[in-house]
Structure formats: structure tokens, C-alpha cells
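Subject: sequence -> C-alpha cells, single chain

Hey, anyone have a minute? Need the predicted structure for the following. Not urgent.
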Amino acid sequence: MGTTLIRMTRQELASLDDTALCQKCVQPAALAMRGRGSDVREQVYGSLTPGQRAVFMFWVLYAHGRGWTQMCAELPHLVGEDSFWLELKLAAKHLHLDELLAQTQAFEKHLREARAANRPIQGKEQDDALLAKTLARDIHTVASYIRANPGQFVELKD
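Reply:
Had a minute. Here:
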């Protein structure tokens, strides 16, 4: 699978709400990965442009972003992988989401410490609430990135 561009008009690009635009741009990759083995997921992810990868990783967090602990519960097969955390941090850097980057680094450290001590993740309710607030704000930044770089995401039709 190569890079997939979404077809839409300039008016749609400008008028879709931020969440709908982000979701629409990651949908082809998400559908190609859903229910597939790690080899297929890695192949699809590897075919994306750097911008598409950044938006995709943001979306994974956003879609499961009721909090770090909820994300860990919903995506245990991903959160145990170092590459997952690396890609989340690269996405935050690419999209200039500095607060999200700092939160990701802090939670990753906490998660590693909890696993090393063989204890569950606890006492992160405040971090979960902060993540939810950050994601709600950052979705606008990510949608603005898509609108500023449509060639990476959209095939414009008129």
C-alpha cells in the first residue's frame, strides 16, 4: 500500500471540523491496519509520509485519549513496544506539540518504572485529565497542519 490521499474539495478541506478532518485523513491507514498482524501494520505505517505518520500517531492517542491509563488498557499490544513511544514523541515533535511531548515523556517514564517494579499504574488521574485537556486543544493545531500541508493528505477535486 502506498501513500493514500483523501479526495475532497477545497471547500470540504476548509469547512470540515477539526476532528472530522483528522479522522478522515487517517481513516485509510487505520482501515488497512485494523485486525491485521504487526507485519501488515508496519508495512502500512511505513508507507505513510512523515506528516501522515505524525497525524496518525496523534490520532491513535486522541481516539484513546480519555487518559493514559485508559489508552494502556485499550492498546496493551502497542504500549509495551518502545517503537510506539518513540513514534508518539516523533509525532509531537513534528507537529510542534511541546506540551504533549512533555506529557508523553513523563508518562512513558512512569510506565517504565511501574513495569520494572512489577506494579500497576496508579495515581495518574491528574495526568489523565491533563492529557484529555491537551488533546482537546491540540486537535486544532493538527487540523491546521493538515490544512497548511494539503498535498500530504488530500487530493483536491473541484
